[in-house]
Every structure is written in structure tokens, then in C-alpha cells.
Design goal:
Length: about 200
């Protein structure tokens, strides 16, 4: 493990990101989740105490999803950057959503930054393809979003690809939006409907 830590601190563009992901799964993920849970619990107790002192019995419980910086996070593989960028641009142009989109895809190499983005997002769009399925960085993001119980909306970018393995475990039984099966405008309209449905069901 010492060698892995050493690699994670180097400038090796190939082995460095791999070492970071290993460290994340072995050591950092558990500590990060513990920290997030502790901070949420402390915020909850502070809110309850303040309301009790002010004799306000309309309990306004804090919820991470209600105070998030982003409504949506787009998780994607860099080879699908063009169409995911189009989805992001349309969402931002609507002025209805705050969207996290890592255009340079730097978060795939930085697990902690990836986790922070998911923690600050109410809904995660998993824009998947065969490339997404084969990427360990994409897998980390998708599995972390599921572990943290973020609502997930699958967006299919390759109409001939059928998800399998770990990806199928996450997207199966969820309503999937196909961006290659319909024209962009129709697919986008379906996506907006699904986003609004998820927000209503999750009360976010």
C-alpha cells in the first residue's frame, strides 16, 4: 500500500490516477462518507436546538439535497463529451437547473473531487455507453452515487449497446432516456419530464 500511496503522489499520468482510485476504494471512501455523515448529523442537531430555543415547533429538518449547490450532475465518459456537452448546454440555457458538468473530465482522476460533486448534487445523470461501462473511473462515480442513494437517471448514448455487469445492476429497472433512438429535441423533452418526475417523487 505504501507503493500505491507513493504512485498517487507522483506526476505519472498513467499510474497516478490508477493509484488514486485504489487508495479511494481501500482507504479514503469510507473516511469520506463518515465525514459527510458526521457533518450532516451535526447540522441536523444544530437546527433542532436552534428551533427548540426559539420555541419553533414547525420542525424544519435540514436535508443535504435541499441545500445542494447543484440540481444535477452529469456523469459521462470523455469519448461522449460532445453529446453530453449538448445536453449540458440545453439544461443551462433553460435557466431551471444548476448542473455540474466536468468538461475537462478531471474528476475521473480525483476520486475525492468526484465524491464531493455527487454529495453536492440532488440527481445524477448517468450518460452511459460501452466506453462508460469499461471505465473504472466512471464505475466509481456511478457506484458512489448509488451508495449515497442519489436518484439516478440513466441516459443511453449508444442505441446498440445493452448494459451488462455492474452497470446493469445500477441502471436496471430505471427509466432510461435514449438519445440516439430519437432526435435530440424529443430525447431532451423526455429527459426533462423524467427529471421533473424524479424531483417530485424525491421531494427535491
Amino acid at each position: 500500500m505504501d507503493y500505491v500511496k507513493h504512485l498517487s503522489l507522483t506526476n505519472d499520468s498513467t499510474l497516478g490516477p490508477i493509484a488514486n482510485r485504489i487508495r479511494w476504494k481501500v482507504e479514503d471512501e469510507k473516511n469520506f462518507i463518515f465525514k459527510q455523515t458526521k457533518e450532516h448529523s451535526e447540522a441536523l442537531m444544530k437546527s433542532l436546538n436552534e428551533q427548540q430555543i426559539s420555541v419553533n415547533y414547525h420542525w424544519d429538518l435540514p436535508d443535504n439535497r435541499r441545500s445542494d449547490m447543484f440540481d444535477l450532475m452529469i456523469s459521462y465518459h470523455y469519448s461522449d463529451k460532445e453529446i453530453c456537452g449538448q445536453i449540458y448546454d440545453r439544461l443551462m440555457a433553460s435557466n431551471f437547473y444548476r448542473v455540474f458538468f466536468d468538461r475537462e473530465h478531471a474528476h475521473e482522476m480525483l476520486p475525492n473531487a468526484m465524491a464531493e460533486a455527487i454529495e453536492k448534487s440532488s440527481i445524477v445523470l448517468i450518460c452511459f455507453s460501452s466506453k462508460y461501462r469499461g471505465s473504472y473511473g466512471c464505475r466509481m462515480a456511478a457506484e458512489y452515487a448509488e451508495k449515497r442513494q442519489r436518484p439516478i437517471i440513466p441516459v443511453k448514448l449508444d442505441e446498440l449497446y445493452c448494459p451488462a455487469g455492474w452497470l446493469n445492476n445500477i441502471v436496471a429497472n430505471k427509466h432510461c432516456i435514449g438519445f440516439k433512438e430519437f432526435n435530440f429535441s424529443n430525447a431532451y423533452a423526455s429527459l426533462i419530464q423524467q427529471i421533473d418526475d424524479v424531483k417530485m417523487k424525491a421531494n427535491i
